Hints:
Elements: H1 12-22, E1 27-32, E2 35-40, H2 41-57, E3 65-69, H3 74-82, E4 89-92, H4 99-109, E5 111-117, H5 121-127, E6 136-140, E7 153-154, H6 155-160, E8 176-181, E9 191-195, H7 196-206, E10 219-222, H8 234-241, E11 244-247, H9 254-263, E12 268-271, H10 273-285, E13 297-300, H11 307-317, E14 321-326, E15 333-336, H12 348-355, E16 360-361, E17 366-370, E18 385-390, H13 404-407, E19 408-409, E20 412-421, E21 427-432, E22 437-439, E23 442-444, H14 446-453, E24 459-469, E25 473-482, H15 490-497, E26 509-512, H16 526-532
Parallel strand pairs: 1-11, 3-4, 3-5, 4-8, 5-6, 6-7, 10-11, 10-12, 12-13, 13-14, 25-26
Antiparallel strand pairs: 1-2, 8-9, 14-15, 15-16, 17-18, 18-20, 19-20, 20-21, 22-23, 24-25
Amino acid sequence: MRGLMMDWPLTLTTILERARRLHRKREIVSRTPLGVHRYSYGDYVERVDRLRTALAGLGVGPGDRVATFAWNSYRHFEVYFAAPCMSAVIHTLNVRLFPDQLVYIANHAQDKVVLVDATLLPLFNKIRPQLTSIQHVIVLPDDGKPVDPANGLDYEELLARSAPASDYPAIDENAAAGMCYTSGTTGNPKGVVYSHRAIVLHTMVQVGADMMGMTAKDTLLAIVPLFHANAWGLPYAAVMSGAKMVWPGAFLQPADLAPLMETERVTLVGGVPTIIGALYQYLRENKSKHDISSLGRIFVGGSACPRSLMEGFRRDFGVWISHAWGMTETTPIGTVAAIKPHLENLPPEEEVGLRLKQGLPAPFVEIRIVDESGKRLPEDGKAFGELQVRGPWIVSGYYRDPRDAESFQDGWFRTGDVANIDPEGYLQLVDRTKDVVKSGGEWISSVDLENAIMMHPQVLEAAVIGVSHPKWQERPLACVVPKPGATLTPGDIIAAIKDRFATWWLPNDVVFIEAIPKTSVGKFDKKVLRDRFKDHQWPE
């Protein structure tokens, strides 16, 4: 027996049409080098339609990759829907990657057109001669200056002379809508292709009450870049729900973000812990200057949220930070730390401990942990192993890449994360497989040690790495950045955490450094630290 239901394709055109019909008056606000730009969803959709015509006039067709090299802005956001809604593929280039990685990615993806912020042209022009497939460069004139024809086509002129497209092509819901590449910490970056169906299903779940709970009443400040893992799906969720959107552009310093939060009455923020942490410190020091009482939810991902940051936002501003976990390969939301009803009245210490976990899997997403032989481990909150995941928006293979075989096991995607799952189903990341410290046949979580060290009131940041040891294979080395003016010794750090861990977990040494190196997406770059301290001499 078959269900008598409409055969309705799940494509991004349906989300765009919803905004056109139901949310025309909601605002989209962007911070630009020239000030604050604002317009309505109605204006937005009309410009998306013009851009679809303009791109088609440049020869962009079904499946062609339309690349962007831009900050979070209304123009960049217009490309986000224009390309997939004309059956092309939006491919965001990470402006923070090294030039050789950018060249590899653009050429590997075979990008046909690239749209570049005018302020990023000096950076883009350094790699431009090495790009083999680009046929057109379109300049987004974010600096207010006329576009030099030698640099490319003027985005605004293209839109002005293009009539709005009046209909959509027939699009298979399984066709590609977007592409992102991993940040490539080992080897070349890997390409992940997202289908229309995957993005639509992800968006439907993401706006759910037990996920991000986004509605038309929300005002979203998306700090996470549009070029980082689909900006966590926030652009699609906002358009479907009709939330007001606030794009910060390249202005990611706390002194720029705080006024936007106040004037636009932001209710929801998404960003990595490093930026959210800097924002918290600024707001705390300037509490009388900025009214952020509208803020209701902060979602962090990309790396673990320090306990001190979560407790600080709750204590000083009455806002809980919610953990979300995902990857480029998971479109990206895999879990969100929602609190079950029977766990809402836990003692404060237990509640924070629960919120610090990465949370419960999203509907339709399945997770498991396995040991090194691939055997499934118990979900008792104690055993930890490699995290594997599967679901309707989880990657099933990389784009033109031979590394698929090592990335999947029996239909499950191997995340490279080390985790445990408790009896309630809450996921807690313990480490990355490449970052866990392997000492005497046992594993030590560098993340647990880092979080404990960063609770010290005089510590700004801390990263723990495994360094070769003649007896134990590896031992943990703590790399600590003190707060300005702090006077710390290695003994102070060990004394602060020694009651939290077994003795054999404690770092064998502590070094003080000026800053923790970061990756292009704001994570601690431990490979740089491992190289720096590979010959570290352990104290006697």
